[in-house]
């Protein structure tokens, strides 16, 4: 009750918090987002309307939420990064005002903003994002829109994990209102398919503005990988190696990581999406690090596998070399026109031959035991980005090339191979006749990794009090 009174008094007197200073200057521009909406509209069928929702907020613990992460499609089309918003795009101009898009945003609220942060509000959405028709979310229900008059209502999967909330400007109320206005009772597959088709075809090709951010996020992630290669030793914990990545990402202005970091030593490196990162010592094992930063929404996805003591054993080297060779062979077909499915076929081919040669498998079908995932995915606003996986490579697509071999203990092969897990992952920009490896700044050859490991890291000199 006390807190309520405090809030109430505050609300009467509080001015809006001051606008923010010293922000990064390289965010995507409003012209970029406007351009993406134009491109989206161009792919909409005649007499259609598209609706995009923000992601719900997520509970971290009791009354504390996770840091909010916007829906990448909403961010791509608007630049709006707050929760509780809806974007409505029309193929043809509507009403006497001839508007072809409406954005519903969170209402400004002086007292809430002193607790949970600044809000862009209607004016901000107009001046900073370039919208002309903007309303507060609470006005969506009363907004006159007859979805029945359109031939097609295009929308993404409606989030089902939204906590019930009685506030009229909360996402829960906005979704309820949309479903009732559009007469939606079950998931409309046809509509979400069209939404995916449009967003896949836009987001799979990176614009020059996006390429600037992609180059940055991958480059700074490489610096982080290289610094860990120099700093790591058998006594370092997985968590500390993870922390070095995180520090360097933030040093270069990244907001965080594009996905939960995978930092696994030995047996842990054989777990594909290992995320505990809690082994207190890496010991004399291989350390697999699949870590990439998120910079202004764009994710890197880089994996390096390194020996904690700076030198690969003969067995580790033999497995590493197969994965390296698989990458090299896949790179050769990275250019416009290659069917995307061929990347994995090629990687599988090289790994199969390599494992047979080492006597680890005899039947080629068994390659799936040690290489159970695909070789490539699109990369961008989502780490597993949107794109047409059944299509062919096109100029300015970015995909990962990430073969791997994982041999957990008790595998049916000579035990000298046990607990070796190797993945090498690079971020590849496709060109007309070739490719550019955006993550080439971090060494991939075992010889180059061993050479870099000999160098000293700034982190080796950091001394902290014993506690
Ligand atoms: Mn990946």
UniProtKB/TrEMBL annotation:
<dbReference type="InterPro" id="IPR000994">
    <property type="entry name" value="Pept_M24"/>
</dbReference>
<dbReference type="InterPro" id="IPR029149">
    <property type="entry name" value="Creatin/AminoP/Spt16_N"/>
</dbReference>
<keyword id="KW-0378">Hydrolase</keyword>
<protein>
    <recommendedName>
        <fullName>Xaa-Pro aminopeptidase</fullName>
        <ecNumber>3.4.11.9</ecNumber>
    </recommendedName>
</protein>
<comment type="similarity">
    <text>Belongs to the peptidase M24B family.</text>
</comment>
<dbReference type="InterPro" id="IPR052433">
    <property type="entry name" value="X-Pro_dipept-like"/>
</dbReference>
<keyword id="KW-0479">Metal-binding</keyword>
<dbReference type="InterPro" id="IPR036005">
    <property type="entry name" value="Creatinase/aminopeptidase-like"/>
</dbReference>
<dbReference type="Pfam" id="PF05195">
    <property type="entry name" value="AMP_N"/>
</dbReference>
<keyword id="KW-0732">Signal</keyword>
<keyword id="KW-0031">Aminopeptidase</keyword>
<dbReference type="Pfam" id="PF00557">
    <property type="entry name" value="Peptidase_M24"/>
</dbReference>
<feature type="domain" description="Aminopeptidase P N-terminal">
    <location>
        <begin position="28"/>
        <end position="164"/>
    </location>
</feature>
<keyword id="KW-0645">Protease</keyword>
<feature type="signal peptide">
    <location>
        <begin position="1"/>
        <end position="19"/>
    </location>
</feature>
<dbReference type="GO" id="GO:0004177">
    <property type="term" value="F:aminopeptidase activity"/>
</dbReference>
<dbReference type="InterPro" id="IPR007865">
    <property type="entry name" value="Aminopep_P_N"/>
</dbReference>
<keyword id="KW-0464">Manganese</keyword>
């Amino acid at each position: 009750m006390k807190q309520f009174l405090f809030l109430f008094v505050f609300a009467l007197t509080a001015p809006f918090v001051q606008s923010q200073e010293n922000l990064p200057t390289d965010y995507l521009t409003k012209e970029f987002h406007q351009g993406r909406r134009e491109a989206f509209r161009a792919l909409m069928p005649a007499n259609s309307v598209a609706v995009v929702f923000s992601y719900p907020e997520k509970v971290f613990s009791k009354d504390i939420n996770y840091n909010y992460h916007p829906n990448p499609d909403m961010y791509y089309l608007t630049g709006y990064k707050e929760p509780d918003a809806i974007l409505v795009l029309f193929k043809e101009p509507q009403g006497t005002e001839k508007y072809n898009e409406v954005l519903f945003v969170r209402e400004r609220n002086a007292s809430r903003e002193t607790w949970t942060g600044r809000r862009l509000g209607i004016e901000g959405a107009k001046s900073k994002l370039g919208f002309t028709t903007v309303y507060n979310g609470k006005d969506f229900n009363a907004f006159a829109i007859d979805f029945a008059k359109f031939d097609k209502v295009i929308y993404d999967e409606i989030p089902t994990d939204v906590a019930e909330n009685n506030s009229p400007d909360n996402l829960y109320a906005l979704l309820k209102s949309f479903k009732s206005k559009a007469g939606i009772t079950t998931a409309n597959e046809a509509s979400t398919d069209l939404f995916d088709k449009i967003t896949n075809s836009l987001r799979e090709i990176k614009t020059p503005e996006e390429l600037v951010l992609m180059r940055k996020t991958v480059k700074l992630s490489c610096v982080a990988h290289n610094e860990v290669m120099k700093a790591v030793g058998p006594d370092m914990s997985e968590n500390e190696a993870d922390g070095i990545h995180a520090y360097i990402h933030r040093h270069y202005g990244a907001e965080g990581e594009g996905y939960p970091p995978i930092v696994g030593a030995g047996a842990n490196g054989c777990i594909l999406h290992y995320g505990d990162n809690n082994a207190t010592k890496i010991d004399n094992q291989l350390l697999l690090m699949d870590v990439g930063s998120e910079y202004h929404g764009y994710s890197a996805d880089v994996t390096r596998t390194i020996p904690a003591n700076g030198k690969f054993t003969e067995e580790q080297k033999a497995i590493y070399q197969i994965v390296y060779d698989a990458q090299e062979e896949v790179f050769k077909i990275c250019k416009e026109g290659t069917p995307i499915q061929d990347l994995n076929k090629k990687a599988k081919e090289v790994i199969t031959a390599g494992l047979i040669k080492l006597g680890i498998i005899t039947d080629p079908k068994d390659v799936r035991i040690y290489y159970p995932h695909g070789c490539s995915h699109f990369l961008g606003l989502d780490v597993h980005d949107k794109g047409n996986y059944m299509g062919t490579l096109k100029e300015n697509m970015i995909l990962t090339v990430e073969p791997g071999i994982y041999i957990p203990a008790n595998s049916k092969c000579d035990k000298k191979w046990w607990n070796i897990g190797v993945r090498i992952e690079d971020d590849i920009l496709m060109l007309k006749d070739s490719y550019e490896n955006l993550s080439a700044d971090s060494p991939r050859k075992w010889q180059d990794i061993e050479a870099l490991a000999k160098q000293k890291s700034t982190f080796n000199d950091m001394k902290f009090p014993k506690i």
